[in-house]
Amino acid sequence: MEAAFGRRLAGFTILMEISSNETIKQAVMAGLGTGFLSAHAVDLELRVKTLVALDVQGFPFLRNWHIVQRYGKRLPPVAVAFKDFLVEEGATLIKRRPPG
Asked: Could you tell me the maximum CA-CA distance found in the chain, to the nearest angstrom?
């Protein structure tokens, strides 16, 4: 959130910080406030309308994803296939979702 909101975050009253996506979703559904999550984390909830995305100026906030592996570690074939899939197809899987 700090990267997305910058200095504007000072105008918010943060009552709790939760590291679990599922716990954040449940807290929002229980009416405890709003949350800040990846569109992928709330895909199902947005489709079945148990959560809604707010239309916030400057959002969606796009992030870079990185693929890392241990130096000198030889990956098994399934990991190589997954890495190749992410490099070749990953960008097309990330969609900008309209609010709501």
From this structure: 49
For residues 74 and 54, is the Cβ–Cβ distance under 8 A? no
Phi and psi dihedrals of 58, rounded to 5? 90, 5
The pLDDT tens digits of the residues spanning 45-88 come to 999 999 999 988 877 777 777 888 899 999 999 999 999 998 88
Residue 46: count of CB within 10 angstroms of its CB:
17
Tokens found for residue 11: 């105008």
For residue 28, give both structure tokens.
């929002």
Rg of the Cα atoms in the chain: 17
Domain spans of the chain?
2-93
| pTM of the shown model | 0.63
